[in-house]
Design a protein that fits this description.
The chain has about 190 residues and is mainly beta. The chain is built from three helices and twelve strands, in the order E-E-E-E-E-H-E-H-E-E-E-E-H-E-E. The protein has helices at about 60-70, 80-90, 160-165, and strands at about 20, 20-25, 30-35, 40-45, 50-55, 70-75, 105, 115, 120-130, 135-145, 170, 175. It binds flavin mononucleotide.
């Protein structure tokens, strides 16, 4: 192994490599709203995995989640990049985000708007929230996962991300490289 020569660069970077998701919520008038949120992680809850979703400021998406306690979390594949970029550069308070074409269905377990273009959708219900600074972090029970019918897996660790083709976000948009193997493939 080589020894990397590093330098201290301050604490302002969030170099956290994450797939991008678009959050779907219900507006007060019953219409749907979508916005990308990439501060997403997972933890253990009383009934299995919980999704951890963090939202900054006072955006409509956050207001809708605070009011309704539910959301859809739609994985963004490369073919959805234009849609995500549009949703993320427009605020609901400036008007309906309807300048691009997309279609919406309702969730199967929860009454939340779901993007038809997404290959992997979590339907989530908020269990707990934590405030830090101007951010609110929602701990969500996963009530349902909708996966592309072409997706197959032997078990919950057998997720071949190359089939989902996610957009990876870390300040810039990236795509995924090769699938390298499974846990244990590289140890003795
Ligand atoms: C790629 C991308 C990722 C984003 N991730 C987050 C995030 O993790 N948390 C957050 O609060 N806002 C995030 N945003 C900002 C919101 O998407 C943006 O403020 C949006 O306009 C809010 O829309 P709304 O008014 O419909 O809620 C992100 C934006 C982009 C483009």
């Amino acid at each position: 192994m080589i020894k990397v020569k590093r330098r201290s660069v301050g604490t302002g970077y969030s170099m956290v490599v994450q797939p991008a998701f678009i959050i779907g919520t219900n507006n007060e008038d019953g219409s749907s709203n979508f916005a990308p949120i990439t501060w997403i992680s997972v933890t253990e809850g009383p009934d299995g995995y919980m999704l951890v979703v963090s939202m900054f400021g006072t955006k409509r998406t956050k207001q809708n989640v605070l009011r309704t306690g539910k959301m859809s979390v739609n994985l963004v594949s490369r073919d959805m990049l234009g849609l995500m970029d549009y949703f993320g550069t427009h605020r609901a308070e400036d008007g309906k985000k309807d300048a691009v074409e997309y279609s919406v269905s309702r969730g199967e377990a929860l009454d939340v708007p779901v993007l038809d273009a997404s290959r992997w959708v979590y339907e989530c219900e908020v269990c707990e929230k934590v405030e830090t600074g101007k951010a609110t972090t929602f701990f969500c029970r996963i009530r349902n996962i909708q996966a592309d019918e072409r997706f197959t897996a032997a078990d919950s660790f057998d997720v071949d991300l190359t089939k989902l083709d996610p957009v990876i976000y870390s300040g810039r948009y990236h795509s995924l490289g090769k699938m390298l193997g499974k846990i244990g493939d590289f140890s003795e």
